[in-house]
């Protein structure tokens, strides 16, 4: 697990070491970051088209996924706004107010990119083996650019690493997700340790689906995948809508994805000041996903 986390952080660190004085070059980097978001989301849709073993037991998979999604998401969204009340956080929405309809439109664009990738993967007679490696490579470039933005934002490394708001978000997400998982397990008449395991994916849909599938079978694996994928897609829509008034809520709902896939959206919608908070919370949650999931399924 540690090598994997270092793999994610290396481009961020390298980018942070690159000072740039040219405003035009920085503007180009900002625009490139936004463009790469669309590319990665399109590849996400393609990867969905290559998903196996979802047709069997589909009704049970959907029931599990929807129930856990509603219970966990509700608990998260009940608690996270309290953090925003206690810990005031400034955002930088491009120095101007964005109409709600415009933010909703931007969110829908991102969702349609995913849907477009899914349709293309289902219709086009092409191999999808290249999608995951391509996504990883583009993600590393994206993180490198975000590291450069951090370096040239005026923030210190101490501000990035020692971030109480990021830690508070992670703790809140963990505790409220477990509460939601226990409620969902009770509603579905499942073992409570299974509910806690399902609740410990924190948005990391690929790893969560693999771990649950290996441990408890394809029904749990498929449900976990859809649960965390739905969380990420809803986060994509909610972040631009919420981050102006409830930045910690917007960052927190992204869960583990706030340090990678939803990080550029957080940066674009809320400004560079939100990035350290997102990285810290996402790092902690990502680190704990395999540890907590394997612990609970072993009980």
From TrEMBL:
Question: Membrane-spanning residues where?
Answer: 6-26, 33-51, 63-87, 108-128, 134-154, 166-188, 233-255, 275-298
- State if Membrane is listed as a keyword: yes
Does Transmembrane helix appear among the keywords?
A: yes
- Record keywords: Membrane, Transmembrane, Transmembrane helix
Domain of life of the organism encoding this protein: Bacteria
Q: Name one Pfam family in it.
A: Lys_export
- Per its record, how is this protein called by name? Lysine exporter LysO family protein
Per the UniProt record, the source organism is: Enterovibrio qingdaonensis
């Amino acid at each position: 697990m540690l090598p994997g986390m270092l793999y994610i952080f290396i481009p961020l660190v390298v980018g942070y070491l690159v000072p740039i004085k040219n405003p035009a070059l920085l503007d180009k980097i900002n625009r490139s970051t936004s463009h790469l978001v669309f590319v990665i989301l399109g590849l996400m849709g393609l990867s969905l088209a290559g998903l196996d073993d979802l047709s069997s037991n589909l009704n049970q998979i959907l029931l599990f996924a929807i129930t856990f999604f509603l219970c966990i998401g509700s608990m998260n969204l009940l608690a996270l706004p309290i953090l925003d009340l206690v810990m005031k956080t400034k955002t930088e929405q491009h120095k101007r107010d964005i109409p709600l309809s415009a933010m909703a439109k931007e969110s829908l664009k991102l969702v349609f990119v995913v849907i477009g990738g899914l349709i293309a993967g289902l219709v086009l007679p092409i191999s999808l083996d290249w999608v995951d490696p391509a996504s990883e490579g583009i993600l590393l470039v994206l993180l490198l650019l975000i590291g450069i933005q951090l370096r040239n934002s005026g923030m210190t490394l101490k501000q990035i690493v020692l971030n109480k708001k990021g830690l508070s978000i992670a703790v809140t997400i963990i505790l409220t997700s477990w509460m939601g998982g226990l409620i969902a397990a009770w509603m579905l008449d499942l073992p409570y340790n299974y509910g806690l395991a399902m609740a410990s994916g924190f948005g990391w849909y690929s790893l969560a689906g693999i771990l649950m599938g290996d441990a408890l079978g394809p029904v749990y694996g498929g449900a976990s995948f859809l649960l965390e994928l739905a969380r990420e897609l809803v986060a994509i829509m909610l972040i631009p809508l919420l981050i102006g008034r409830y930045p910690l809520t917007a960052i927190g709902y992204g869960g583990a994805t706030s340090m990678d896939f939803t990080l550029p959206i957080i940066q674009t919608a809320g400004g560079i000041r939100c990035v350290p908070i997102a990285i810290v919370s996402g790092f902690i949650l990502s680190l704990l996903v395999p540890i907590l999931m394997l612990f609970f399924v072993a009980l």
